[in-house]
Amino acid sequence: MRLVAYFGGILIITLYSFNTLHPKTDYIHCYEATISALLQEEHELVAFLQTTDSLSSEEIARIGKKIAQCRLKLKAADFWLRYLDPLGYKKINGPLPVEWESEVYRKWDKPTRREAAGFTLAELHLNEDHVSRDTLLRLIGQAAEATALFLADSITEPLHSYHHFFFANRLFLMNLAAIYTTGFECPDPERVIPELRQLLASVSEICKCFDKSFPAQALPQSYHLLYDTMMIFVRNQPDDFTRFDHFTFIRDYVNPLFAMNQQLIRKHGAVSRSINDYVLNNEATSIFDKSLFTIQYPKGIFSLVEDSAVLEEMDRAGKLLFYDPILSGNNQRSCASCHKPFQYFTDTTVRTPLQYDSINRLPRNAPSLVNVIYNHLVMLDGRHFSLQEQAREVITNPTELAGTEKEIMEKIMSCREYRTLFKRLLRYTPGEKTVNLKHIVSAITFYYSKFSRYYSPFDEAMLNNTEIDARVQNGFNVFMSKGQCATCHFVPLFNGVKPPFNNSEFEVIGVPADTFYSKVSPDSGRYQAVPVPEMLHAFRTTTLRNTQFTGPYMHNGVFSSLEQVIDFYDGGGALGRKLPLPHQTLSADSLHLTPEEKEDLILFMHALTEKVRFEAPPASLPESSNRALNTRKPGGLY
């Protein structure tokens, strides 16, 4: 097999042996032929670029057609490429020139700068005012080099066992729901559905080759039958992805196939060694199951606790502390001051909450704590990687609760009820000799995280085929296509965490400082945590669940209604309004949404309102031996 390297416009091709320690099965032959076909298409495109003297409009059009042919070959191999080497895939079809990523399995490290290459970036370059042959050669040459590496022994070793197949298939199915129909990595909307058809047909052949090579673990006939029915459904859909029935596609085909694949993972005892499966739960039976993946660990220092009675004590302690202003420097502010439980743990009454001084305002909105466990980076700028770290900062921040650890612990331990509770819980944290702030913040995060386990009417429609209004379905279809919402807010949590759910995305969209669009909000966002140009004014993509009741919207609370939010996106963000904003990740072009489409979008987002069972605040707080503390009010004074 050939290994391709690209150096300064010269393609160097050498021989690379495919693993010879194992016999070549039908499955291996299928893999080898598919990767080789993609590589050959890339070689031909590079050769064409090398012989092109000038890039006339006709030649640019020919290059575009050749890239489209490469993309079809890519779709045939996509099943393996994304799973076997997700970083290598970015060199073949990366969506952004530069990404700064913090994966969930090493999020405590500094973000990694990754430069992408490949077909999407090459195609986008073709639409720029000045098209450079050298740029195209670099992007396609790197794609060819990355493709060749997929024939290396280190990459292909898993193909000789059945285990990887079910996990690769799981990723494929999740991506069918989340990205393949949205245009996330396809610059031309007219090719989204044709490429989907190619993808489905190719995976069908891959599955058949797998069955021949691993008959004991072959996919059941029921799986093939449903898959074939799905292909017929897609074949009969319009080429226009804005008219594609994303709702039925996911509900009736993708999600049931996912459930069957999960059952096969368990049945065959499949074992994964891939980082793709780091956070995924083999027991989840639906893409919309809230247990599908685990990112945050609400129990914190109490991670070893499983006993239900002890967990109840933790929950009780956490609830009391959440409402207790004893955590603040002046005993007047609590967690509930900014995160009001009956308002989905946010504050809908103000753009941004009051500071500790009760006069000035905090610079950012109070984000909902519901579903925060599904982000591996916390805060809108992602500066924290755990809920407990975030809670500690808020408690000790001089502009928020302004407490100090020493004073907080003295006040808490002066309350007999707290002292008794936490001394009893201390035995479950080996290595900790005394009760400390880690115990306190862990109880708090455990308490509020339980409100993330509820479902919405849209979830129920996907999980149980319950009826849902046709306009909600249409709103979802607009969300997935013309509205371009799903290219940032991914199924199933509708936040910035996409399959395989191992990082959080940040976007530069240009939120204005006011509704007159006089200037971009001065908040530098992610740049405060990662001071690089691409992160200036970038913010973590938050969930759209419960947005019906979690306004005002955006990091600065500038928009008071969902209508305003949709108009902002429809107008192309900051660049669409001629405001200067380097590195905007949102398209500056208008979406041209109709009034009815906007209304349906809002109806869909309303259908994401979860049926959360809120709890009444505690009637009273634990008494302290310090009588001055016994005037505290549940929830605080401001």
Characterise the protein shown here.
The chain has 638 residues and is mainly alpha-helical. 42% of the residues lie in helices and 4% in strands. The chain is built from 21 helices and six strands. The protein has helices at residues 26-50, 57-84, 86-93, 119-126, 133-149, 153-156, 163-178, 192-213, 221-235, 246-267, 308-323, 335-338, 387-396, 405-413, 416-425, 437-449, 457-464, 470-480, 562-570, 573-576, 595-606; strands at 2-7, 10-15, 98-101, 112-115, 506-508, 538-540. Strands 1-2 form a two-stranded antiparallel sheet. Strands 3-4 form a two-stranded antiparallel sheet. A hairpin with a 2-residue loop joins β1 and β2. The longest helix has 28 residues, at 57-84. The protein is globular.
Question: Which features does this protein show?
Answer:
638 residues, 21 helices, mainly alpha, two-stranded antiparallel ribbon, globular, disordered N terminus
Order of strands, widest sheet: 1-2
What's the N-to-C terminus distance? 69 Å
Given the structure, what is the number of helices? 21
- The succession of helices and strands, N to C, reads EEHHHEEHHHHHHHHHHHHHHHEEHHH
Unreliable stretches covering 5 or more consecutive residues: 1-10, 12-16
Instruction: Report the C-alpha radius of gyration, rounded.
Output: 26 Å
Describe the global form: globular
* Residue share in β-strands: under 5%
Q: Strand count, sense and closure of the main sheet?
A: 2 strands, antiparallel
Question: What is the total tally of β strands?
Answer: 6
Helix content: 40-55%
Oligomer: single chain
Structural class: mainly alpha
Q: What's the rounded overall pLDDT mean?
A: 95
